[in-house]
Amino acid sequence: MLISAFPHFIIFVFAARVHAYDSTLNDVRIQCNETFPISYEYDVHLMNFGSFPDESDQTSMCFIHCVMDKTGMMDTEGTFHKNTVVEKLQGFPNDTEIPDLEEIVEHCVTETDQEELCERAYGFGKCLMIEEIQRHGEAQEEE
Predict the structure, then answer these.
(1) Are the C-beta atoms of 118 and 64 separated by less than 8 Å?
(2) Any bridge partners for residue 95, and if so which?
(3) Which of 50, 56, 74, 75 could form a cystine bridge with 129, CB 3.0-4.6 A?
(4) Where are the domains of the chain?
(5) Torsion of CA 96, 98, 25, 126, to 10 degrees
(6) pLDDT per residue over 2-35, tens digit each?
(7) By its UniProt entry, which Pfam families does this protein fall under (predicted)?
(8) Could you say which DSSP state residue 17 is in?
């Protein structure tokens, strides 16, 4: 099992781990979880493998879209706002610095081609997770 700072950091955005320093994101997560409930098992799977166990589960994908939309990382047209994504994700958790986050975000913006908004948000989040695991997973696993 890969242990990396980035999966915890992405879980913050998409699932259930929000630190008190940003109550707005926590409020958004709570709001989105009321409309699109996501299970603890899905959180864990996303954190460990970069994806949901059932990739056809629209509710979980729409949870991610809801959070990304309400935080300004993605608009209602499906456009990702790269600077906002980096701003919202950099420094989590515990001021963890992802040195190439801008490059990862740029890569995933160009790689994400889904049309449907929930699938698009999930595809982007999955890309972020997988890309970070591939780039940094082994080095951070040893820590």
Answers:
(1) yes
(2) none
(3) 50
(4) 5-141
(5) -130
(6) 444 444 444 444 443 334 335 576 788 789 989 9
(7) PBP_GOBP
(8) -
Q: What is the pLDDT of residues 65-84, one digit of tens each?
A: 998 999 999 999 999 999 99
* Phi, psi angle pair for 80, to nearest 5°: -85, 135
Q: Are 55 and 66 in contact, with CB atoms under 8 Å apart?
A: no
Give CA–CA dist 38/33, Å, rounded: 6
Classify domain 5-141 at the CATH superfamily level.
Pheromone/general odorant binding protein domain (1.10.238.20)
Give the predicted TM-score (pTM) of the model.
0.76
**H-type helices in the chain, by residue range?**
5-14, 23-35, 40-49, 58-70, 82-89, 101-111, 117-141
